[in-house]
Amino acid sequence: MHAWLCSTTDGPDSLVWQPMAQPEPGPGEIRVAIQTASLNFPDRLITEGKYQIKPPLPFVPGSEFAGVVDAVGEGVRHLSVGQTVAAISSTGGFGTHAVVNALQALPLPPGFDMVDAAAFAFTYGTSHHALMDRGALQAGETVLVLGAAGGVGTAAIQIAKAAGATVIAAASSDAKCQLCLDIGADATINYTTISLRDALKALTNGKGPDVVYDPIGGELAEAAFRSIAWRGRYLVIGFAAGGIPALPFNLPLLKGASVVGVFWGDFVRREPKANAASLGQLVQWYAQGKVKPVIDTVLPMSDVATAFARLSARDIRGKIVLRNPA
């Protein structure tokens, strides 16, 4: 097999494509012949040693991939050789093969597109866990999605709409805002040209959003929280903008609001049955056409440098998928 190996924490520019020994699955594990893998923001952080999970060096980055099971370890009963799966692991996806815990592999129904499969579990799993579990989103509520044109943002828009919510999508350009409208957002805010607080006040008749979905952090966080509705829930997904905001503690008090942490990776590990139920509902919604990954572009696995460069420049609408040769 071959894979992109990370031997330092100098970032994605230090990755090297090289041959490696074929891994063998242990008890409770499967090996996947990878067809497609998608790029997520934590994939960059982990190569810089900045992610919550710090694997020992060297390692193969890539947290989300799809392919065909080609070996099964002892004790695995629900998966078999030849079955197509989408898999989640903190590492391993940017190569031709990977071994993963069988409980972290999602069996795919016949006809599930493999490009969509590589862009599905991480972003949709994160957003479903955030909105439906941690945010307790109810039909009729209003959701503000920050960074709405990215991978988790586009997933959050579709999931919130499937749950019966009104969605306000905030993004950094008119083109990104149009994408959000195209996939179901009810209204958009280009926060580079208009005050986020003023726009939210106008769009919600002064009430504010019931749920704020924030994968970017940075300078918009306080403005969004100051706009939140009474009993609102502010979902902390990540910090793609780079800065970790420091909110004054009086703001949750004045709004009777909650700051809610969302760490989907640990949710998968700690609550596998709840995660399986969440992913099962998402697969049903996909079959019903309620959710579908927004794919920015598909690149060959060999072009991982371009993928990371665009991720770092925040020049992605939806997800970039890397594909191995057939």
From TrEMBL:
UniProt domain Enoyl reductase (ER): residue ranges: 11-322
Keyword Oxidoreductase: yes
Cited Pfam families: ADH_N (PF08240), ADH_zinc_N (PF00107)
EC number(s) from the headed UniProt entry: 1.-.-.-
Keywords: Oxidoreductase
Top-level taxon: Bacteria
A GO MF label: oxidoreductase activity
Top-level EC class: oxidoreductase
PANTHER family: QUINONE OXIDOREDUCTASE-LIKE PROTEIN 2, SHORT-CHAIN DEHYDROGENASE/REDUCTASE
Protein name: NADPH:quinone oxidoreductase family protein
Organism this protein belongs to: Ideonella margarita
